[in-house]
Fold these 2 entries.
Entry 1:
Amino acid sequence: MDLEKLDFGAPAAERDIDCGLDDYFVESDAFQRVTNGEKTILLGNRGSGKSAIFKVLASRERKKGTLVLELNPENYSYEMLASTMLKESDGAWAKHGAYASAWKYLIYVSIMKGITIEGRKLKTGSAAKIYNYLRDHHQGVADNPLSVLISYLKRIEGVKIGSYGANLRANELEKLYKLEEIQLLFPHLNELCAKRRVLVFIDELDRGWDSSEDAKAFVAGLFQASISINQQTSNIKVYISLRRELYDSIPELYEDAQKYRDIIETINWDEETINWDEPSLLSLITNRIKHSVPSLATYNNESCWNAIFEEVLRYRQSRSFNYMVDRTLYRPREIIQFCTEALQMSKQQSNFPIDYSVISQVEISYSEERTKDIAAEYRFPHPGLLSIFEVFRGKAYNFDRNELELLCLGMIMDEHHIDVNAKNWLKDQDYEYLIEILWRIGFLRAQAVGGVKAMRRSGSSYLGPHQVSQLNLRNIHRFHVHPMFRSFLAMKEQR
Ligand SMILES: Nc1ncnc2c1ncn2[C@@H]1O[C@H](COP(=O)(O)OP(=O)(O)O)[C@@H](O)[C@H]1O
Ligand SMILES: [Mg+2]
């Protein structure tokens, strides 16, 4: 076996696509629903595979001749939005609608540019009409998507707060909201798109996120724009991805949840399925093993994993795959990272197959990284989480309800060293609230009993939100800290 070649790929889809993602991609049901256009909004935690779906779909469609546009400016620069745009309260204008129009304008203009870009050869008919429009309105304008959007917003803002008479203002606004400038071009655009399908992907909206009024209006406006474009122009599909907790933090979106429900796909992973070869985190890893070590290509998933990792670990006789996947929140990036770090260590120490001594060594840094990442991931709704995690340091990781309530109450009552930012959102809350948050973000898991037990998908009898979506925590009597956090927090086995 050629171990030197063994490689688990890159932990972010943007780089992974050049390592072979299209080849070792796991085609989940979510992917199918996105591909056939049934779902156009992807929600998922960081590292769950949003970009992977977009990258693979984009690459496959390009090969078929589809025009694919990926609108992910390096950074959406929410700060710039906030500093250029007036506050809603100052301008007395509804930002949400203004952003929706500006997004539509930007997306349509980008498509027009994309579809007429090829060559300078003589354009006739629809292509000529669009070409002329672009020449007259967008020539020499910086090709930065954000600046197109901002300039349109500025036009709306100008009318809203400018010294127009009421009638004139309503009139001008209507023109801008209806995209009058480009409306006559829609039939031409439709004609061109009938010949060549167009897909637009908008990913990474969380980059530079600052939770400001403008950031929220920017995203909510995009949701609205995408729906409207997808309805209006049949051969254009606009796809958006967003991190789950950002979606939850934008009131404009969940107030409109009904409108979006049918087109939202939320990414969830299973560790392994009853049928070993169905899409799962196990196949996600074994596909990568087989891609880099072709001599294992004919192995089933189980024996492929066992060719690289010692099957049963000396720690509690756990199966190595279960042990590792149990230290993730079921996100592909986590298992890829854990496996990659283990592989590097095993190469360094010429210790193969990868066994418990290797896994437990890399677990120390892996656990630290993940704990800090999770705290950072939730820094907007719950700043200072790391200091709350630290309260658990050195303790036994199992808690019955009373102990946990007491500990959480202590944090609320300021008996521990908690970051001031965390104190702010904790004060005036009860311990149930804190338990709920710690469970939601994956830090705590709840022991499944009775009916709940039947809801679990696999593995441990302690469940997190990545395993069951709904759980009435008030009925739960025992909890434990998720294993991913334990090594870093030096938590002990039992009292
Ligand atoms: N269905 C899949 N099949 C194979 N690899 C995947 C799949 N989904 C995600 N990955 C890999 O997992 C890692 C994280 O996924 P990514 O799409 O970058 O996460 P996100 O964009 O949600 O933060 C990347 O290496 C990606 O290639
Ligand atoms: Mg991504």
Entry 2:
Amino acid sequence: MKPDKRFFASTFLFLLGWAVTFVSMPSMASAEPFVKGAKLCEECHEEEFKVWQKTKHFTSFRTVHREPKDASKPSPKKILKAVGGQKRMKRNETCYLCHYTLEKKDAGAKPQAKSGTSCESCHGASSDWLPLHDNYGGKDVKREAESADNKAKRIASSKAAGLIWPTMKYEVAENCMTCHGLANPDLKADDLAKMLGAGHPINPDFELVKYSQGSVRHRHYPPDMKTNAEMTPKEQAEFFVIGQAAALVSATGVMSKSSEPKYVEAQKKRAENAKAALAGIPEAAELLASPTRDNALKLATAIAGKDLTGAVGSKLPAKGDYK
Ligand code: HEC
Ligand code: HEC
Ligand code: HEC
Ligand code: HEC
């Protein structure tokens, strides 16, 4: 091979490698979906936005970092100091995990805490699924005219891109537990122990129906899309069982993460509560014997649409106790 040919060949290979890298870049970038922010959702989901604005998830943004006057309440300053936080709570990466939504306009922007727990904390960071989730099959196609095929593809593609659809009840429930069960995998065991030592609350009694059907409830569905419908007793019973399954799997999974006594005790109590609640449900036998995520998903599928009001009945929370 003459030198000039070798040069040509290696240049060609270099360019080819570069082109391959370049072409595959968009998919690399989308490996890290990001949060676009609730303001964007408001454009099309006004009713849901109005509901959210009245929840503690929203109002907490302005209040949670303030020192409470009542000294028996948890002190944000103390908790922050315990984990070695130099900055304000709003700028601390441990507190970010649960108390705030870090959003950015585009992939290259610097993420900022713009609100408390928000739409995408529960429905998934939207950068990848946003353009997919509302596409009925073209710009001019209305919901009524959407083909069954398009609908199936729309749901599957946005799910693959990270949207937690309201119909994915188990995924919805396990997501609440990452924060409410202090089970976020990115929370370091050390920091967890320090937070709890400094008085951070841990609530072993988070129950899905009680916590989702009060202030947080938004259920605007066809045909009218305007009524914030209450769950029927049958829907409540199913959601209750799914919530208990998620609580059991979460508590069992994280129990040994920290030896901080408050943590171990709360997770044990959570698991015991869930076991007692699931005891009368035949479909839960496998999960009770082995509390894995797979078994919980199997349970959710097995009870979908079933009437469990008889088995769950009196275990449901009273409406007056809804959060
Ligand atoms: C440009 C308008 C538009 C924007 C912006 C938008 N959505 Fe949607 N969204 C829709 C439409 C239309 C549907 C209904 C799809 C259907 O018929 O199932 C929908 C459906 C949903 C659903 C499923 C509802 C159901 O019935 O199961 C969720 C959850 C959702 N959107 C969340 C969000 C969130 C969170 C944001 C902000 C990050 C957002 N959307 C931004 C138009 C939009
Ligand atoms: C793994 C999720 C998670 C992390 C991380 C976390 N928190 Fe919390 N925090 C919660 C939850 C959930 C509650 C509500 C607990 C309850 O009462 O059920 C809460 C409650 C609080 C409260 C009490 C608020 C009130 O309304 O009484 C304070 C103060 C607080 N957290 C401070 C902090 C600080 C400071 C950090 C960072 C060092 C932090 N938290 C990190 C989940 C978390
Ligand atoms: C605390 C978690 C949480 C937050 C925050 C949250 N959602 Fe939801 N969302 C849910 C759950 C759970 C459901 C399922 C309700 C059901 O079907 O029982 C749901 C259902 C929906 C639906 C379908 C029902 C309806 O009312 O339209 C849409 C659309 C939606 N959410 C959009 C949003 C938007 C937009 C925001 C922010 C303004 C938001 N959600 C904030 C948990 C949440
Ligand atoms: C990203 C973390 C996160 C997720 C996910 C999350 N929450 Fe929360 N939630 C919090 C924090 C933090 C607080 C406490 C805020 C405070 O006290 O200032 C809270 C408070 C609440 C409250 C108010 C409780 C009270 O005592 O007034 C309810 C109700 C609630 N969450 C329900 C839910 C439900 C239901 C889900 C799942 C569908 C959910 N949350 C998912 C972080 C989260």
